[in-house]
Design a protein that fits this description.
This protein is an alpha/beta fold. It is built from 17 helices and eight strands. The chain folds into four domains: about 15-140, Glutaredoxin (3-Layer(aba) Sandwich); about 145-190, no CATH class; about 190-265; about 265-378, Tetratricopeptide repeat domain (Serine Threonine Protein Phosphatase 5, Tetratricopeptide repeat), CATH 1.25.40.10. The chain has helices at about 35-45, 60-70, 75-80, 95-100, 130-140, 145-155, 160-170, 175-190, 195-210, 220-225, 230-245, 250-265, 265-280, 290-310, 325-345, 345-360, 365-375, and strands at about 25, 30-35, 50-55, 85-90, 110-115, 120-125, 315, 320. A hairpin with a 2-residue loop joins β1 and β2 (about 30-35). α7 (about 160-170) packs antiparallel against α8 (about 175-190), α13 packs across α15 and α16 (about 345-360) runs antiparallel to α17. The chain is globular, with a radius of gyration of 23 Å.
Length: about 375
């Protein structure tokens, strides 16, 4: 994940012509169905195909960018050949009904339905071409879907962690009733939070209580984190505190909380922690304090070093890269490091690291923009 992506350049101010095509017209390889959703489902069932529903709307730059960068390209066309593709434009009657039925709030969004109409996976928001191709590959192969997590849960019905994975997958596709039922079962099985899964729900309860408090009093959260033994929860909890403190401009308190989170950070969590810090502090980069610069750079270095060590499918401290493009993954972590060098006032190192990221992922336009920004001192 790129730490501080800048505005994407839309390919045009108009929407892709292929989405205006007649119902079932084949343009650039994808056969889009635009109006007859019931017919698309019937066709999917008879052919034993999944349905790929693309939710989009007018005046949505991310929709234009995603279509132009990804759905209009050959790789996506070939990967979606095994799907019935339905274009759900919010402003049209057919699209509006589906937006309401599936409670779509983010555009673009992509919903994958099984041949029988049940929900299998949801991808919400813009993603890069590489990210989409990797995700659709996983979904097509049956990994990370609702069915995948349902099967895992049934294999070990007493495993609360697997049950929570299944519940989260259901929530991800908008199946709230089924999700709530599973959550109730988990809470009943571990009301005191002895397992990590049960403890997560206690943590969520404390978060909800603090957010409901007008003053956002952190004493309940600090007390809870002091008692809890699970490091992953202590990590998440102190990150949550830090961002809340930043929101009320308590910079010293925020930095202290982030440092406590880092002391509880596992290797798998570290792979995203550097990106998280960079995103947070990039917003205030023009008036960073010395202690903040040092800490953000320290974590970004550790994250990049860990990413480097995962080459060749290696596992380090439970961390492992399982995607399809390791070079792009590593380039993203180097991009984060480059940003952190820049924030720390070390422009020479920032440029060197950014150029290496560009070598690893030469097609990523964001890295080129980043280099231009760093070199110009923006």
């Amino acid at each position: 994940m790129i730490c501080c992506s800048f505005a994407r350049v839309a390919f045009a101010t108009f929407l892709p012509l292929s989405l205006f095509a007649l119902d079932s017209a084949r343009i650039d390889g994808i056969q889009w169905v635009h109006t007859d959703f019931a017919g698309a489902q019937k066709d999917a069932k008879s052919k034993n195909k999944r349905v790929f529903v693309y939710f989009w709307k007018d005046d949505c730059k991310d929709c234009v960018a995603f279509f132009g960068e990804t759905l209009d390209k050959g790789d996506a066309v070939s990967k979606l050949e095994s799907y019935i593709c339905f274009s759900a434009k919010k402003e049209l009657d057919a699209g509006k009904k589906l937006v309401e039925k599936f409670a779509i709030e983010t555009f673009p969004s992509m919903l994958i339905l099984n041949p029988d109409g049940t929900r299998e996976a949801m991808l919400s928001g813009y993603r890069t071409n590489a990210a989409f191709l990797a995700e659709i590959d996983k979904i097509t192969s049956g990994v990370g879907t609702v069915s995948y997590y349902r099967k895992r849960s049934k294999e070990k019905p007493g495993d609360l962690a697997r049950k929570l994975e299944y519940a989260d997958a259901l929530a991800g596709v908008g199946e709230k009733q089924q999700h709530d039922k599973l959550v109730a079962e988990i809470r009943k099985a571990d009301p005191k939070g002895k397992t990590l899964t049960g403890a997560w729900f206690l943590y969520r309860d404390v978060v909800a209580a603090v957010e409901a408090d007008t003053d956002r009093d952190l004493k309940p959260m600090n007390s809870f984190l002091h008692r809890i033994k699970h490091k992953d929860i202590r990590f998440e909890g102190h990150c949550w505190i830090a961002e809340l403190e930043l929101g009320r401009d308590e910079r010293e308190h925020a930095l202290r909380a982030f440092k406590t989170a880092y002391s509880n950070c596992s290797k798998p969590k570290l792979l995203d922690f550097g990106d998280q810090l960079a995103r947070v502090y990039w917003k205030v980069r023009k008036n960073l304090r010395t202690a903040e610069k040092k800490f953000v750079l320290k974590v970004a270095r550790a994250q990049a070093d860990l990413a480097e060590s995962l080459a060749g499918g290696k596992t380090v401290g439970g961390a492992r890269y399982e995607g399809h493009d390791y070079n792009a993954f590593l380039a993203g972590k180097l991009d984060t490091l480059s940003c952190c060098y820049y924030m720390a006032g070390r422009r020479k190192q920032a440029i060197e690291v950014c150029k290496r990221a560009m070598e690893l992922a030469p097609k990523n336009a964001d890295f080129k923009k980043r280099l231009e920004q760093i070199e110009s001192g923006q």
